[in-house]
Structure prediction request, 204 residues.
Amino acid sequence: MSRERATQVVSELRSMFGKGVALHTPFPKPYCNDASKVRAIYLGCDPTNRHSSKLPYAFALESNLPIFKKFLVDHTANLQQIGLSWNTVYAQNLCQNYFGNETSKNLDLWRKVAGWWTPRLKTELLQFADNIPVLLTSGFLYDLLVFGKKYKPIEFYECRQPVPIPAEASLLDRPLIPFYRHFFYSLTKERWRTYRKAVRDCID
Prediction:
């Protein structure tokens, strides 16, 4: 999205939702090395963080700030556990704009703005086959994008609930897979080996 369009979006969002929507533009670009090789959509909440409002790409990819190194190492390791890399995903945020506060401290506003972004993201993802799943890196995304009965993260990770969540239960009309970045749910842990295989099977 161009800086000019991002500025228009910020103006529209602030008129609807208030000054909690930050003025920072441009927004981080989605990261996609080769659309023909994309096997999953890697979805974050929004780009807001305490260190930079000038991220080149979603998930701070290709940022030159050392503060994001551990953050990226953790994400990369999780992807590797299911046979993926940054070159085989389309990395994007549900809310592409910055906020005044990080997601966990800003949930009421984030949910409202996310409702504005959801149909736009759905359209953006039409460039990919509709069976390509969305990896949800946060429970906030699950809570927002899944309708019907909701389940706790542990129920998926202990394989008491199947993955993927079917497209017909998703506001994005795509299969969804909980893939949380919280250290407790890191797929590098042996305790999640069965879930790791279940997710791999969804991707393969």
The domain at 28-203 is CATH 3.40.470 (Uracil-DNA Glycosylase, subunit E).
